[in-house]
Amino acid sequence: MLREKLIDKFTELFHSQPELFRSPGRINIIGEHTDYNDGFVFPAAINKEIFFAVAKNNVEKIRLYSYDLNEFFETNILKISKSTCHWANYLLGVIAQFHKENTQIQGIDCVFGGNIPLGAGLSSSAALENGFAFALNSIFNFSKSKINLVKIAQKAEHEYAGVQCGIMDQFASMYGLENMAIKLDCRTLEYEYAPLNLGAYTFLLCNTKVSHSLASSEYNIRRRQCEEGVAILKKFDSKITALRDVNSLFLEAYKESLSALIYKRCKFVVSENERVYKAFKALETNDLYKLGQLMYQSHKGLRNNYEVSCSELDFLVEESLKNSNVLGARMMGGGFGGCTLNLLRINEIENFSQHIIDSYKMKFGIEPEIYTVQIANGTGACK
Ligand code: GLA
Fold this sequence. Notes:
This protein is α+β, with helices and mostly antiparallel strands. 42% of the residues lie in helices and 23% in strands. It has two domains: 2-196, Ribosomal Protein S5, domain 2 (2-Layer Sandwich), CATH 3.30.230.10; 201-373, GHMP kinase, C-terminal domain (Alpha-Beta Plaits). It has a six-stranded mixed β-sheet, sandwiched between helices. Strands 10-11-9-12 form a four-stranded antiparallel β-sheet. Strands 2-7-8 form a three-stranded antiparallel β-sheet, with helices on both faces. Helix 2 packs across helix 3, helix 2 packs across helix 4 (146-161) and helix 8 (260-284) runs antiparallel to helix 9. The two termini are 15 Å apart. The relative contact order is 0.17. Bound molecules: alpha-D-galactopyranose.
């Protein structure tokens, strides 16, 4: 098992006994690009995860080993700065945030590895930041709250990975609960768990295996475009501080004051927020058909108005529309590649997966990956 392998590697490299931690990736049922607009999201942690073997080292060094990449990174604890080592930045970013909060990290060793596919929109980076933040908090007895750790992880992403992400990924990975999705208000950070009783249905992920390089630059651009929209709309109602405060009626009334591009961006976010609310209700009343329709609408908005989809994702969603046992599908996460999330009949998984594999391979010459998901607990120590 991976956990044992990590511990073995740790003792081989550092000759001491580590503590073990786990941090999961996430899916998001609906509510894409709403988090940084102070809106609502509906994510859940999943059984794709990263494990961390961690211990103090008493030598004032940060020594990190990525088991999956078979790469080692080392630096002095007093010299934390951005590195050219891509993966180390997620962890260094976390340490830098602890230091900013005047919680000094001493020498630490860490071996980590997992099974969250990279660039698949399943938040492997949030899992990495969260898991390390949780481990440091526990090993150095800082008693920081979970929400504090979530914010540390998010800031690490902003400052060391250069993505101005919202809070959804880190929150979902930290607060996940088995078989529960999380209704999260990204403004107040109030949340509620919603049982995922899907009966004869389930969620299935189809990984395009592409991750276009536009992803992080376009992400930051979308964020600015939303702010631009808010700056204009607040002239008509000073209470507006984020797109969360705008509804469809208001947006239509002041449409002419926005450029066509900014209107499209706002239109998507405002409608997506409204869809999240409808999705909460649909799940509550067991109306999976409705939930599926909302997922399709979400994809359409992400493709046409927010323009963060790509031909590979669109193709997978189009194929799902041909199968009446699939109730809904959409691209998931930031966009420009990664996975689609599909809501389909459990007994259709095999048939649908085979069709997706064959047709996608034929079209793009790439073998897609298909994952069934179980909804799992959030970041924590392993017993
Ligand atoms: C990425 C970000 C999240 C969120 C999604 C889009 O996953 O990290 O904060 O904005 O994109 O919903």
